[in-house]
């Protein structure tokens, strides 16, 4: 079977997501096996986003110098194998999780850079579908892990077999890729991907999506249980409502952006996100609340993919550098948002905490012009 470069890159996104999913599915067992309290294990888990931030600071120069293809060929197998030390680490597995975070950052940057280069060469959008496949990979491996847990498979055995399979899939998927040229007009790469004005503006646009995805995953079920008084079983529907709509939207997003343009689509999505928040805040019953979470998922579905695309098009800096800077900011926002939401909810209540997210949809609307591609010299001269 002949696979296009775009299909191979989408599969690489799914493989990267599965590397994350396989670890997350076994973390509760690892906590129990290490005999760590929830507080101690929670502290150890902060090493993972710290590793992502650290990785994003310096891996952009590596991806630019060796290319995303070579970065993935070497990086994905190592990233998959870095799950094994987490299961074996004595005491606090913080060092192993830090290394896993660095590997996550490298793989994430390389697949996004490659997706952008294919978009630039082909003239067709694939970034949103790529991120949709990432979610499919995460979800698929998580569900498969449930079966292996039921069979009593030890995490270290699971991780070892997974790493071997991931290595074979990487060679099959990435090996035939050819190196695509970088976008023209990029400056020389710097040693560290320090966020600049462009990265912060793009992050300003994407903040609503980053916040709501993280908060929805962490607090959606709790919101339905405590604010609406629903049973645990019914409240659990908040997560598939949000993530299902988000994933579906990402598979449909490329066609919409191709047809109507990123600016028009994203401003429509910002309005939809605001409407979804209002529905969740005013809901007195489960159907309106679940619909609201689904509308939120649809509204934020393309924020992060379009953020990566906008970062890649930033003039004057290599695509990998601005994408890494944007990813760094996104990681920090995503890390602090669930506890910040919890603090506001403790002080003002869950409904007010959710309502406090509405202004961020205005930020998405205001900063959406960053998605418009920069004009060429010829276009500027004729304007």
Automatic annotation (TrEMBL):
It is found in: Membrane. It is a multi-pass membrane protein. GO terms for cellular component: membrane. SUPFAM superfamilies: MFS general substrate transporter. Gene3D superfamilies: MFS general substrate transporter like domains. The keyword Oxidoreductase does not apply. The chain crosses the membrane at residues 7-27, 39-59, 71-88, 94-111, 132-153, 159-177, 198-222, 234-252, 264-283, 289-311, 323-344, 350-368. InterPro entries: MFS, MFS_trans_sf, MFS_Transporter. GO terms for molecular function: transmembrane transporter activity. Pfam families: MFS_1 (PF07690). Keywords: Membrane, Transmembrane, Transmembrane helix. This is Inner membrane protein YbjJ. It comes from Roseisalinus antarcticus. The lineage of its organism: Bacteria, Pseudomonadati, Pseudomonadota, Alphaproteobacteria, Rhodobacterales.
């Amino acid at each position: 079977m002949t696979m296009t470069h775009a299909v191979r890159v989408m599969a690489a996104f799914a493989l990267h997501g599965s590397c994350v999913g396989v670890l997350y599915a076994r973390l509760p067992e690892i906590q129990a096996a290490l005999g760590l309290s929830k507080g101690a294990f929670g502290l150890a888990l902060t090493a993972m986003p710290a590793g992502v931030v650290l990785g994003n600071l310096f891996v952009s120069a590596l991806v630019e110098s060796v290319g995303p293809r070579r970065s993935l060929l070497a990086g994905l197998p190592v990233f998959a194998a870095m799950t094994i030390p987490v299961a074996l680490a004595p005491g606090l597995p913080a060092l192993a999780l830090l290394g896993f975070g660095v590997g996550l950052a490298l793989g994430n940057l390389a697949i996004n850079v490659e997706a952008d280069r294919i978009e630039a060469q082909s003239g067709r959008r694939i970034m949103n579908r790529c991120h949709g496949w990432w979610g499919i990979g995460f979800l698929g491996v998580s569900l498969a892990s449930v079966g292996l847990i039921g069979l009593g498979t030890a995490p270290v055995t699971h991780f070892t077999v997974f790493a071997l399979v991931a290595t074979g899939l990487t060679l099959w998927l990435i090996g035939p890729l050819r190196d695509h040229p970088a976008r023209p007009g990029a400056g020389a790469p710097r040693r560290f991907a320090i966020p600049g004005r462009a990265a912060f503006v793009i992050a300003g646009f994407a903040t609503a999506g980053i916040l709501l995805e993280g908060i929805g995953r962490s607090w959606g079920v709790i919101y339905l249980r405590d604010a609406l008084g629903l049973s645990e079983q019914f409240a659990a529907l908040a997560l598939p409502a949000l993530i299902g709509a988000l994933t579906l939207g990402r598979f449909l997003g490329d066609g919409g952006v191709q047809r109507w343009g990123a600016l028009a689509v994203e401003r429509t999505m910002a309005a939809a996100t605001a409407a979804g928040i209002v529905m969740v805040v005013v809901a007195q019953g489960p159907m309106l609340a679940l619909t609201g979470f689904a509308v939120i998922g649809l509204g934020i579905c393309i924020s992060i993919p379009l953020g990566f695309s906008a970062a890649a098009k930033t003039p004057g800096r290599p695509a990998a550098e601005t994408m890494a800077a944007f990813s760094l900011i996104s990681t920090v926002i995503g890390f602090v948002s669930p506890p910040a939401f919890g603090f506001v909810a403790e002080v003002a209540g869950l409904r007010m905490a959710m309502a406090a997210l509405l202004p961020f949809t205005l930020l998405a609307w205001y900063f959406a012009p960053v998605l418009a591609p920069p004009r060429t010299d010829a276009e500027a001269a004729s304007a």
